[in-house]
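User: Fold this; tokens only.

Assistant: Input:
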Amino acid sequence: MKPTQKQFHKNNIHLKAYDFDELIKANPSLETFVQKNSYGNLSIDFSNPKAVKEINRSLLYAYYNIRYWEFSDENLCPPIPGRVDYIHYLNDLLKESKMNGDISVLDIGTGATCIYPLLGNAVYGWKFVGTDIDLNSLDTAQDIIDDNELETQISLRQQVDENNILTGIIEKEDRFTLAMCNPPFYKSAEEARGANRRKTRNLGTNAVRNFAGNNNELWYVGGEKAFLHNYLYQSSLFKKHCIWFTSLVSKKENVESLQKSAKKLGVKTFKIIPMHQGNKVTRIVAWKY
């Protein structure tokens, strides 16, 4: 499982194979998990959740000026190369729109790892407001922010109503350059558990915790489609508060219905930006009023 040039944005520094000497220097704890694979190259066991967590922590330490990144094993461990790709594509969108200067980003569902704010601030100097419905996740994210001395760059807000995404979060005085989101994929906890079991069978029995995640990270009533349409509708209530609204979309079939609804709501520009997340083809949708 090596990053290859076909998988990532041209500006992604993880285009080449991992430099394990550099990563171990940045995070000595990684060394325990590094071994030669069947090709004779240094690698880790990607079915081992502890190894996955350490390599992603090492990437943050080595390339993104992060010194502390601790969170519960119950939370999803985001793959850094794939997550930073979203950031690079958003930067392309801003450049195409001739937007520069101070960039303010709303990260919907920032999670315990606070990963998009950490990456967006490190790579492009953007300021972030991160939101989440889970208070424990926000507490963990705040610890990460504080311990990396990023309090002036990243702030957090709790969404207290599970039926809302932007309502109750965006305030009258807010003016965001863009909003971003990596929505829950599944319709229910059972559907998420089923997907977890399939991945476990594919990678081996030790893989279970590699696909951990609490409820709000993994599923939403109605699944990705329902979440996206709720997000789209609520964006129409805050046309003056944010220029670009964006989201990752895992399921291609959800894009067409979203685009039709966007037109009805008065969206002026709707973009579909193809990208890859590891071996998985996905896309970003972006719209503005």
